[in-house]
Amino acid sequence: MAEQQQGTERVPTVIVDDLHIVYRVHGAGSGKGSATAALSRIVQRKTSPNVREVHAVRGVSFVAYRGEAVGLIGSNGSGKSTMLRAIAGLLPPERGRVYTDGQPSLLGVNAALMNDLTGERNVILGGLAMGMSNSEIREKYQDIVDFSGINEKGDFISLPMRTYSSGMAARLRFSIAAAKQHDVLMIDEALATGDRAFQRRSEERIRELRAEAGTVFLVSHNNKSIRDTCDRVLWLEKGELWMDGPTEEVLEAYEEHTGGK
Ligand SMILES: Nc1ncnc2c1ncn2[C@@H]1O[C@H](COP(=O)(O)OP(=O)(O)OP(=O)(O)O)[C@@H](O)[C@H]1O
């Protein structure tokens, strides 16, 4: 941190080295999908004829540093979410490696929220799931609720999560995750569901998290959110890293490619 403030040394937090991720989809296409067919394949040591492979990330390499906010862009299905899940350690690499300094948190997954519990219980549960202590959660509880804005239109925090709109649920998840300082925080389209006022608050919080020396990854189809929060952008297409550079440079090329802002 001290070195970073002096601007002399950059501390790597995530190293991705020639990463390949392959999904195996079982039961794809038509064919025998019965339990007896599966058992006979196991006995005969044959692989299923219906396993299809999706090579979602193809040889991506980059290094992310402390204090960076990195945007991930690319068309639908280009591999952005897959990359985040792999960095979070949720998907095993087919080839290559991911090294991380500290525990990466993928927003929405780490906060294991329960639909039948009230917002209030979920704040506590999510906090515990992220490794916060009871007293830490108590201390931050009101800030989390205020930040989420869940109670702006009445006492919703004491209602079960299943009664929330998708935007409200996303706001609560973001608020819980953002209450903690993360070594590496990954946010997958979380800002898209909130309204504009909430998006602005979230962007502000992302900048703070970054200043507190973590690394933030943000997947978004909203180029403005990326412009407002990230200083570096990775552009993925068909699982390959097409471009890695300063936000403005990469977004300009991307907008030219996609034909508009
Ligand atoms: N669980 C899965 N099983 C099999 N294939 C998957 C799975 N999840 C994603 N894929 C495939 O992997 C590829 C990359 O998907 P991914 O969700 O990472 O893309 P994305 O860039 O995040 O897309 P979007 O912008 O639409 O969210 C796609 O071809 C998709 O069909």
Automatic annotation (TrEMBL):
Pfam families tied to this protein: ABC_tran
SUPFAM superfamilies named in the record: P-loop containing nucleoside triphosphate hydrolases (SSF52540)
Residues annotated as transmembrane: none
GO-annotated molecular function: ATP binding
Family label: Belongs to the ABC transporter superfamily.
Protein name as annotated: ABC transporter ATP-binding protein
Gene3D superfamilies for this protein: P-loop containing nucleotide triphosphate hydrolases
InterPro entries, alphabetized: AAA+_ATPase, ABC_transporter-like_ATP-bd, ABC_transporter-like_CS, ABC_transpr_TagH-like, Bact_Polysacc_Export_ATP-bd, P-loop_NTPase
Signal peptide annotation: none
PANTHER family: TEICHOIC ACIDS EXPORT ATP-BINDING PROTEIN TAGH
UniProt domain ABC transporter: residue ranges: 37-261
Keywords (A to Z) from UniProt: ATP-binding, Nucleotide-binding, Transport
The keyword Metal-binding belongs to this UniProt entry's keyword annotation: no
Database matches in CDD domains: ABC_KpsT_Wzt
